Amino acid sequence: MTSGANPFGGCCGGSAAPIMLRCAQLQGMFVSQRLDGSGSLHRSRHERPLSGGCKGIALVLSGLGAGGTERVACSLANHWASDGRKIHVIALDRENDPSYYDYHTDVELVRLGLPPQRRPAAQAALAIARRALAIRNAIRNAAPDVVLSFLTRQNILTLAATRGMSVPVVVSERSNPERQHPGPLWHWLRNRLYPRAARLVVMTNGARDFFSPAIAARTSIIPNPVVLPSGWRARRGNNRLVAVGRLETVKRFDRLLRAFHAVAARHPAWTLTIWGEGPERAALEQLTRRLGLDGRVELPGVTEMPGGWIETADAFVLTSDYEGWPNVLAEAMASGLPVIAVDCPHGPSDMIRHRHDGFLVSPDEPADLTAAIDELLGDPLLRDRLGTASAASAARFAPAPIMDLWEEIVADVCGRTMPKAPSPVSVGDRRAGRAGRELPQPQGGPAG
């Protein structure tokens, strides 16, 4: 999920420097004071202890549309609201924008009407300030005990907005920070502001390692929960290898087609189905014809029932160049499918132990992917064993244990006095410390 159009327009080029200077001035405004309606100043949050419990929680999002981040935020909000907590969901989108997910009736939705837009460079800093001030006012009105923010740009805006306020802020990165760059200005602001967060939440060990040790020490790893479709029923025995994802270059379905072509003659009963839609459809259809795979490969588009593809699949394969957290891989494992995944950054190596609960193959050796597909399609006993093991491993991604990890963070940041934030440090330092919470590992023998 992305946070919308880049609001900086052309500022990522030579015009970025003056905008950075203006944002530094705005940042200084948020550092130096907190203004209430009377214009009076409040003490820094580092001078004020937090309360012992979290009865009020505010979540900050770019919008309430469809997406994995929005689904997780909605699940958290509904869970906490059902516990009797005071929950506010603050979104930058418009009041009349539809909410894709259904929120608990006790969750208060605050729509700011300031969605990110592509703007000339001269207007970018003012747009940032306007959104940050709107978030600040919404948080002040909600008066939460803790704020949770999701996605890089919203995290930056929220940290700027809460300067001088006593409320702790937990920021959550939902992508692969190595490969999905926010742009030079947002990168600079992230370096300046992330050290101020009470906690950083990422989804993989690799994402945590992207950040410098000072940040990684306050980082927790919480993957997305897996929620399978209600009432789904496995209908195996179709000899169907399945992949799922947007038809775009990064998913590397071309690599999958070539690997399947290499083994197709040895497994004539098997077909390949690639669910999804996107700009690479024509190229993939052309490659399918060129490889002589007509009748063996299907590209049916987007399934009408989200997650419904798990019912008729017999094996699953992921071939991406990179991922943030591959939800479809987790869903395949949870449904008991045997899986093959290219060991891309990030996610597959957090989920799979090679030959214990799936195949983890090198992205640099196409022959490894071909060999894994060949072995899996030709051995039904292996498919059964790996499918059983993958379902057991994926149990750690069920909603209940994932919710427990979020509960731990909320309880921790609300139950202590905020430490003085360290000086700004750069992200992208691969020497990150290991003090943060490790991704829970499945039980069983060592990886093969």
Plain-language structure description:
This is Amylovoran biosynthesis protein AmsD. InterPro entries: Glyco_trans_4-like_N. With 448 residues, the chain is of the alpha/beta class. It has two domains: 49-225 and 406-414, 3-Layer(aba) Sandwich (Rossmann fold), CATH 3.40.50.2000; 240-397, Rossmann fold. Helix content is 36%, strand content 13%. The protein has helices at 16-32, 68-82, 121-142, 152-161, 184-193, 205-210, 213-216, 253-264, 281-290, 327-334, 348-351, 366-377, 380-394, 399-414, and strands at 56-61, 86-91, 108-111, 146-150, 169-172, 199-202, 219-221, 240-244, 271-275, 297-301, 315-318, 339-342, 359-361. The model is unreliable at 1-52, 417-438 and 442-448 (pLDDT under 50).
Notable features of this structure?
single chain, alpha/beta, Rossmann fold, 2 domains, 14 helices, disordered C terminus
Structural class by sheet pairing and helices: alpha/beta
CATH topology of the largest domain: Rossmann fold
CATH architecture of the largest domain: 3-Layer(aba) Sandwich
Spatial order of strands in the largest sheet: 3-2-1-4-5-6-7
Give the tally of structural domains: 2
Query: Count of DSSP helices?
Result: 14
Which stretches of 5+ consecutive residues score pLDDT under 50? 1-52, 417-438, 442-448
Rg value: 23 Å
Residue share in helix = 25-40%
Assigned CATH class of the largest domain: Alpha Beta
Q: How much of the polypeptide forms β-strand, as a percent range?
A: 5-15%
Mean pLDDT: 82
What is the approximate shape?
A: elongated
Overall number of strands: 13
Largest sheet: 7 strands, parallel
Taking the alpha carbons of the first and last residues, their distance comes to: 34 Å
The CATH homologous superfamily name of the largest domain equals: Glycogen Phosphorylase B
Order of helices and strands: HEHEEHEHEHEHHEEHEHEEHEHEHHH
